[in-house]
Amino acid sequence: MYKALIRPILFLFDPEKVHHFTFSMIKFLSFIPGMSSLWKFMYQSKDEKLEREYFGLKFPNPVGLAAGFDKDAKLIDQLACFGFGFIEIGTLTPKGQPGNDKPRLFRLKKDQAIINRMGFNNQGVEAAVKRLKSRNSSILVGGNIGKNKVTPNEEAFRDYEITFNELFDHVDYFVVNVSSPNTPNLRALQDKGPLTEILSKLQALNNERAIRKPLLLKIAPDLTDEQLQDIVDIAKEVKLDGLIATNTTISREGLITSTEEVAAIGAGGVSGKPVKEKSTEVIKYLRKNLGPEFPIIGVGGIMSAEDAIEKLNAGASLVQVYTGFIYEGPKLIKDINRTILK
Fold first, then answer.
1. How many CB atoms lie within 10 A of CB 12?
2. Is 279 assigned a catalytic role?
3. Confidence class for position 1, pLDDT limits 50, 70, 90
4. What percent of the chain has pLDDT over 70?
5. Is residue 65 within a helix (H) or strand (E), and if so which, with residue range?
6. Which positions make up the binding site for FMN?
7. Which pLDDT band, with edges at 50, 70 and 90, does 202 fall under?
8. What are phi and psi of 178, to 5 degrees?
9. Residue whose C-alpha is closest to residue 91's, from 159, 20, 36, 158
10. Which residues are annotated as a binding site for substrate?
11. Residue 219, pLDDT above cutoff 90
């Protein structure tokens, strides 16, 4: 129904406006008696064979919603009905910020892809905490944290520290995001020196707590083997609990959409099918160099159940979807879980 009827209508309109409209409609529909139960019946898969346990957390199934979809934790209860095993909110920054100028979200339909240059638009960590305090669902929630655009890289740790402390009691795990291509100079924080410093300081704060929270790092798909080896070394040195591979790509290689149309869109990260192979190769490298037990969350180009299985076979412990959820609808989550069971 989604692909045949709903998606063609939604795809007629501006992607960002459709995103906000969809949020409003899901919220509205959730107030109809029995609707949440219907969603659960249609999309949730419950089976002990789907359960996974990593970094001290028990996931009811290995399919999560990637950061960026519900940045401000507005739809946790509703999205939990669609069969996800976990939901990642953010990227959140200490202060709310509008993000980059519009338009900043574009569909590449021929490529089953999206280009975005949102720029960490969010209402700030305090607003998200208020919503998290009032949620009813017990679904596992990750907090993806970043720095404000106006914060210089030399002071970036302060932003990560503020967001970490504010969110600590309200999320189940943390993800440090230094890999978005849409905040100026952010990816420079992936260099070994600054990244080690940020993660070491956060881990020190974490270890001071009575009960620490898992700390993960999200990396780009555009890293060289040398840079990936630095990530491996950092993960071991800082004792990270896991890695998320990968964020969006700045590459435009192999796109079906005309170069003129892509050039007219301009800067931004590509997600969806074009990033699938890059993401999978990064996962393979990490698994080979971090051993069989280190948790890796695979994300990037999962448009079908087969794509998710490919990520798992490459070494991912869990997977996340975003663009595939937009193109395929909530049935994708159930398809992945059913295929895993088979």
1. 8
2. no
3. confident
4. 100
5. strand 63-65
6. 67-71, 91, 144, 177, 218, 246, 272, 301, 322-323
7. very high
8. -120, 15
9. 159
10. 71, 116-120, 177, 182, 247-248
11. yes
Strand partners, 58: 53
**Which of the following is catalytic: 36, 45, 179, 180?**
180
pLDDT value at position 116?
98
Helix ranges restricted to H, the chain = 7-10, 15-30, 35-43, 76-79, 125-133, 156-167, 192-208, 225-238, 259-265, 276-290, 305-314, 323-328, 331-341
**pLDDT tens sequence across 57-73:** 999 999 999 999 999 99
Q: What is the mean pLDDT of residues 317-329?
A: 98
C-beta separation of 337 from 63 below 8 A: yes
Give the strand pairing for 52-54 and 57-59: antiparallel
Q: What is the pLDDT of residue 246?
A: 97
- pLDDT(28) > 90: yes
Cα–Cα distance between 312 and 286 in angstroms, integer? 13
* CATH topology classification for 2-341: TIM Barrel (3.20.20)
What span, in angstroms and rounded, lies between the C-alpha atoms of 179 and 181? 6
Of 201, 288, 282, 196, the residue nearest 235 (C-alpha): 196
Average pLDDT of the chain? 97
Binding site listing: 67-71, 91, 116-120, 144, 177, 182, 218, 246-248, 272, 301, 322-323
The tokens for 173 are: 């795990």
Cα angle: 312, vertex 340, 5; to 5 degrees: 105
Give CA separation, 329 vs 39, 47, 79, 247, in Å. Answer: 12, 22, 12, 20
Domain ranges across the chain: 2-341
- For residue 91, report the phi and psi dihedrals to the nearest 5 degrees: -75, 130
**Distance between CA atoms of 283 and 221, rounded to whole angstroms?**
10
